[in-house]
Amino acid sequence: MGEVIRFLLDGQVQEVRGANPTTTLLEHLRGPMRRTGTKEGCAEGDCGSCTVLVGEAEGDTVAWRAVNACIQFLPMLHGKALMTVESLVKDDALHPVQEAMVEKHGSQCGFCTPGIVMSLYGRAVGAKGADAPVGEVLAGNLCRCTGYGPIIEVAKAVTAEAAPAVDLAAVRDETMLALSFEDEVHGVTRTWLSPRTLDELAQAYLQHPDATIVAGATDVGLWVTKQRRPLPTLISVSEVAELKAIEETPDELRIGAGVRYVDAIDVLARLYPDLGVMMRRLGSTQVRNSGTIGGNIANGSPIGDMPPALIAAEATLVLRRGNERRELPLEAFFLEYGKQDRRPGEFVEAVVVPKLPVGRIFKVFKLSKRFDQDISAVCGAFSIAVEDGVVTDARIAFGGMAGTPKRAKACEAALVGQSWSEATVEAAMAALETDYAPMSDMRASATYRALAARNMLRKVFLESLSPDLETRVIPESAHG
């Protein structure tokens, strides 16, 4: 039983046996299932032509999410429901979204159209993350033909409808959820483990310390589709309920490592409005529907957007190995490029974020070539306390400026104890040269990064003096 992947497709139980654990959902759809409406464009979760809807149990309901099938491993669908573009046609009649695409000329070459249709259908049925402005919902669907004008008109024409009702009981009893199997692929045994509790996860990772932990696969998926890396053992955390919990107290927020961006945006935006704004530019709707807060941190990327903001917010990590837990400041987790303070068999369990004290300045700036769905050239986060015109505390962190997300200690020291003035800010800007020696790459030159980081601090100062001062680009998607 445990070797069978079970899911619902259009309400019908599907069973897959003998699967390679790193087979993508897209490969399975276009291959054995012959559902070729779902397209492969980029195979890295960027273009959205492979967008499908996945429904999963959330309390007593089923929550639907638009996701990129190209970087979802097939076992990740276990116990869930699936809809593809073929699912929308009923009795040979097109769905209203499809009809509107025809009537309003929203499709030209047609390659991206199925993914766009699924994103707009998700918006119609109230899928997660789809209550945002149209431009934000479609930021993860790239179209080279239409210029998006007709597609926006389609979105405006589509009316809301009830989400499809499915009964996951047929694929979610306790026996069926115990997914654990090995499969020999080209002479290599590949193992997929899916623990259901924190204790089971801790034990599994102790037994397989070299395993790859899979949460949303928004990065790990690319290891397979782009780098062709063999992943002998994978441990999925998607069924560990404790990792999906968000707990709020009067003083802090505890976010489980398996909490997806889409589920964390609202609460973080309430406590840290600037962070909420930045998170809506972090990836696309499809990426935020899959990627997790803990996965972004554990991956240790020097250009990850969440760590600088969480470092500035004085967040701490909860790490677990077996029955042992330890906590450390988030900035101490990143040791050097590609290396984190994590022992074999130890995983990120949660991140704890203190609530922002009243009156404290907190700003986050993401600078990238594209406004939507792009990797940062520089991401800067600033948390500054000013009392009676004097800076009493400062926490400043940048991504993209070093081999790890890193605090600007010299810059902070130049601020603390000084008046919150232009002269002080100028001195602190100069101190950034001591903190960082950025590199040049395809996203930005070292000179550009250094200048951008300095100007971000200046922008914090200007916005603090004149909160209504327009210093930011407002995307068109924010207006409709």
TrEMBL record:
Instruction: Say yes or no: keyword Oxidoreductase present.
Output: yes
**InterPro entries attached to this UniProt entry:** 2Fe-2S-bd, 2Fe-2S-bd_dom_sf, 2Fe-2S_ferredoxin-like_sf, 2Fe-2S_ferredoxin-type, 2Fe2S_fd_BS, Ald_Oxase/xanthine_DH-like, Beta-grasp_dom_sf, CO_DH_flav_C
**In the UniProt record, does the keyword ATP-binding occur?**
no
The entry lists its GO molecular-function terms as: 2 iron, 2 sulfur cluster binding; FAD binding; iron ion binding; xanthine dehydrogenase activity
**Residues of the FAD-binding PCMH-type domain:** 185-358
Q: Which UniProt keywords apply?
A: FAD, Flavoprotein, Iron, Metal-binding, Oxidoreductase
Q: What is this protein called?
A: Xanthine dehydrogenase, small subunit
Protein species of origin: Caulobacter segnis (strain ATCC 21756 / DSM 7131 / JCM 7823 / NBRC 15250 / LMG 17158 / TK0059)
